[in-house]
Amino acid sequence: MERAELTTEQVLKRDIPWETYMTTKLISGTGLQLLRRYDNRGESVRAQLLDDDGPAYVQVFVSILRDILKEETVEYVLALIDEMLTAYPKQARLFHDKSLASEDTYEPFLS
Length: 111
Hints:
The protein is mainly alpha-helical. The chain has six helices and no strands. The longest helix is centred in the middle third of the chain and has 25 residues, at 43-67. The model has no long low-confidence stretch (mean pLDDT 92). Pfam families: V-ATPase_H_N (PF03224).
């Protein structure tokens, strides 16, 4: 199967080494905790996490897209975002949260 044919479901079956990224300082300890809470959880759990602390999750996702270049990880985070926005389109508002005003949340999507 060619990479272009991978589905979101297939991409999300990957095991991403989040701890390695924290060890190499590509994600923070807080970012690692958020990812552990969110990753491999059911839709209802993820929805509750986004309701509780959505901007923090968006910030982690955007920082990964900005700072990590490994294709498999980028695809994985894009799949998480795709799944989030497909299930709950109103979550797009999280990218406009005032707590993220100092960040360009769209820049990583343009590269």
